[in-house]
Every structure is written in C-alpha cells, then in structure tokens.
Amino acid sequence: MTIQHWSLGGVKVAFSSDDEKPETRLSEHIVLDGTESIIHRFGYGSGLRTLTGHILGDNGEYATLVSGYHLQTQLSLVSDQGTEGNYTIWSISRKRVQDIKRVKPVYQVTVELKAAF
Description:
It is a single chain. By secondary structure, the chain is mainly β. It is 9% helix and 61% strand. It has one helix spanning 61-71, and strands at residues 4-8, 11-21, 24-30, 37-44, 48-56, 75-79, 82-97, 106-115. The strands form 2 sheets. Strands 1-2-5-8-7-6 form a 6-stranded antiparallel beta barrel. The relative contact order is 0.25.
C-alpha cells in the first residue's frame, strides 16, 4: 500500500486508495404484458471518484471538508502528480483509528467526489 500525500480544498490527507466509477443514465420500461423491456439511454454523468485516506490530528481539517460538503463548494484536488481538477464532495465519512504512537488522533476519511463543471 502506497500512501499518497494529497490535498483536497487545501486540507492535507494521506490517501491510500483512489477508485473511480463511471456513470451512465439508463431507464428501463417494462411492457405491460411483462415479456420484454425497453432500455433508454439518457447520457452519462461525471461518475464518482472515491478516495480513502487518513487525517492526522484534529485541527479542523475534517470540519473544513464537511463545510465544503454542506455548501457544495468546488474544491481543488491536488495529488502527488499535480492538479487533478475541481470536485464537489458527494459524500463524506470518517472513523477514528488507533494511533500506534498514541500522540494524536488519527481518522480514516472516505470522500466521494463528482467532477465540478
């Protein structure tokens, strides 16, 4: 597992996974006799990008991300390879994990992002 030191909206997070899920908008219409269905394609969205990582300490970093989520602010995502673009937080969660050195709290954070247009 490689830890990638990135920032989302200026908040430093040590991300360990970056997953993408494309999105296609489909609608299925079932014919009344129930023997067949018709599928209509209505285009596609930007898809979801899920990042999981760790925030060390609790100096308001998570609160900053939650504020961006509530206000639907466009946040810049910067990876170890440069700017990844602007994103809106679609969902966010955290859980406290054990700090081996017991120096400060460590939180595992998962954010789902949609590309901002």
